[in-house]
Amino acid sequence: GTNIMIYFVIWAIDYDWVIDYHFCCLFSINFQAEGIFRINPENSQEEHLREQLNKGIVPDDIDVHCLAGLIKAWFRELPSGVLDGLSPEQVLECNTEEESVELVKQLKPTESALLNWAIDLMSDVVAEEDYNKMDARNIAMVFAPNMTQVCYMYA
To answer: Which of 135, 134, 119, 124 has the alpha carbon at shortest distance from 2?
Structure first.
């Protein structure tokens, strides 16, 4: 399958794992893997990979579902969600691409950069939809809960 190189940008912000190494890890992800970001790996497998990455060890045989799970977990475990700078009302009332662009402009630079990185990643996944069965709606549904710590209630 097609491998796309991802630079997992490491911010100079002190988080608990992976991101606090202040260097760029280069991963090759097969975006054609069916159910990428939807299929959850075994917890023990994901924890083992997390421990290795925390020690600065980048294994050759990284399971794509483990890495995808860790990326989602990283966003979920940020001190505040990427979209938490926006009110639930603003997000729920956003219906067009133009409104989305204006809304994103309200984010702080770090949150905006993280959101852009996540959107680029999701676009790469959707580009392989014929193989991975992950269309824009599917990837949004599995990624969205990891982008905020605010509970959005639907009326």
So the answer is: 124
Q: End-to-end alpha-carbon separation of the chain, Å? A: 43
Strand-pair partners of 30: 3
Helix H or strand E segment including 141 = helix 136-143
Predicted model pTM: 0.77
What are the pLDDT digits (tens) for 51-104?
Answer: 888 787 778 778 889 888 988 988 888 888 999 999 888 888 888 888 988 998
> Tokens standing for 68?
């995808």
What is the length of the chain?
A: 155
Burial of 51 (0-12, 13-18, 19+ CB in 10 A): exposed
